[in-house]
Write a structure and sequence with these properties.
Length: 156
């Protein structure tokens, strides 16, 4: 059986497993509470992945497919999520402070009580997103599509 390796953006090995897919490797690492700080997950297929409580600070997730992924309570501070597909993702109580979400697809995403302070959401699609109670202080929402987004109780 081949091994699956997760590396950081500098090429250093963070985690090695017998999982058959990158998605399986990431889920296993998260389950074992491995810190995936600065993990290079560019264009990764993580659709529907269980990443609750994941430590992904500074992770490189540009163009990653996270549709329907469960990222409740995940730490994504300063993560690069440019162009990521987070449609219908569950990000309740996620820590996204300083995250780069430019051009990300967050349609129907649950961002209730998420910390988005200083996040860059320029040109992000937040149509039908749940942002109730989210902290949007100093977040950049220029060009963001907020059609039918629920912003009740959101802090800006």
């Amino acid at each position: 059986m081949e091994k699956t390796t997760i590396r950081n953006v500098g090429g250093k090995t963070i985690y090695v497993t017998q999982a058959e897919s990158l998605r399986g490797a990431v889920e296993q690492a998260v389950g074992e509470e491995v810190e995936l700080e600065r993990a290079d997950l560019m264009s990764a297929d993580l659709r529907g992945a269980d990443l609750r409580g994941a430590y992904l600070r500074g992770a490189y997730l540009e163009d990653a497919d996270l549709r329907g992924a469960d990222l409740e309570n995940a730490d994504l501070e300063n993560a690069d999520l440019r162009g990521a597909d987070l449609e219908n993702a569950y990000l309740e109580n996620a820590y996204l402070r300083g995250a780069d979400l430019r051009g990300a697809d967050l349609r129907g995403a649950d961002l209730e009580n998420a910390d988005l302070r200083g996040a860059n959401l320029e040109n992000a699609d937040l149509e039908n997103a749940d942002l109730r109670g989210a902290d949007l202080e100093n977040a950049d929402l220029r060009g963001a599509d907020l059609e039918n987004a629920d912003l009740r109780g959101a802090d800006s």
